[in-house]
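Exercise: predict the structure of this protein bound to zinc ion.
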Amino acid sequence: MKAVTWQGKRDVQVDTVPDPTIEQPTDAIVRITSSGICGSDLHLYEVLGAYIDPGDVLGHEPMGIVEEVGSEVTHIAKGDRVVIPFNISCGHCFMCDHGLQSQCETTQVHEHGTGAALFGYTKLYGQVPGGQAEFLRVPQAQYGPIKVPEGPPDDRFVYLSDVLPTAWQAVEYANVPDGGSVAVFGLGPIGEMCCRIAQHRGAGKVIGVDLVPERLERARGHGVEVIDVEREDDLAGALREITGGRGPDSVIDAVGMEAHGAPVGKLAQTLAGYLPDPVAQKLIEKAGIDRLSVLHAAIEVVRRGGTVSLSGVYGGAVDPMPMLQLFDKQINLRMGQANVKRWIDDILPLLGGDDDPLGVDSFATHRLPLEDAPRAYEIFQKKQDGAFKVLLQP
Ligand SMILES: NC(=O)c1ccc[n+]([C@@H]2O[C@H](COP(=O)([O-])OP(=O)(O)OC[C@H]3O[C@@H](n4cnc5c(N)ncnc54)[C@H](O)[C@@H]3O)[C@@H](O)[C@H]2O)c1
Ligand SMILES: [Zn+2]
Ligand SMILES: [Zn+2]
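Solution:
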């Protein structure tokens, strides 16, 4: 089959690799019809090469049609239309029972002391072949796959794999009071969906912060008040001014480790990208390699007693944190990979009708054949050609 493979820093390729087969009675094989490219894939493309091998298949936002199921998979059958969550979780351990599917005890990666395995996401998360491919082997398929109805195009459902539950969790964790204010840093797919979900769930004021003009414009078009960080010298002051002088009740960081405007972290990341793998791994594990400008700004601007919710991914082991400010301002801090299955029952009803309250039908800017993956990664990373969300369609 054809699959998108990682080859090196800023180098992905479409290769022919062996077709996946059923290996466990809990496996399923899915023929992929759409597969998103995520901001998390960009971290692999740019920074996290030390943990991934050339030839590894990328992708963790797939949907498609079930081709085959193992003997223990009973809730789906050949021919069903399914979305595959990016976490691989079992559905029956302590963590899954507590709605913490991204910490699943059956699939945790003990070798690295990390949480649940993920599709297409480095040795830290199990080195499981991903879903930017013609076919995908789905482990723990007795639980993971989400059956969706025939009819609407893939766009309606594909974001159940990651964008929707990630944004839903970010908003839930942000604990925005009814009618309260939330600032969302980063207006990529995750941040923009956070804005839409916060509006839908009754936030009074949603403020979006980014530096890409088209992304600011898109969010403004959805009733978000926007601030361009490149044009605002006093971001904290501007945010306080539009929130009655106190700062927003909640702040969501939907940028993560590659924030613009953080020279120290950028230097460490550039180094990590060019060092031999074992040396780079040491740097990442022993040093702070994240660009922390956004996280620190979030802590700076949130009102006293407010909540900072991180959905942007961070990876440094000893990143410096402003403990005085966190403690003094009595800030609540929540974060983590999305527990995808936990939020599906809340989200699915919003995808059923034609009213499309979250705007998923027109969310993607590009639907490209799998062969175009190298260009798709490039335009998404460089924010060229209006690329905002790209779906690869094998
Ligand atoms: N927690 C999870 O389960 C989960 C799931 C999916 C994605 N993520 C993470 O969420 C983050 C966003 O993902 P995405 O797909 O939206 O990616 P993206 O790269 O398209 O979005 C990031 C946005 O942040 C903006 N940005 C960069 N520096 C900034 C700054 N200093 N101030 C304000 N904005 C800035 C960029 O212009 C871009 O629009 C990534 O870190 C990704 O890894 C987490
Ligand atoms: Zn993703
Ligand atoms: Zn589990």
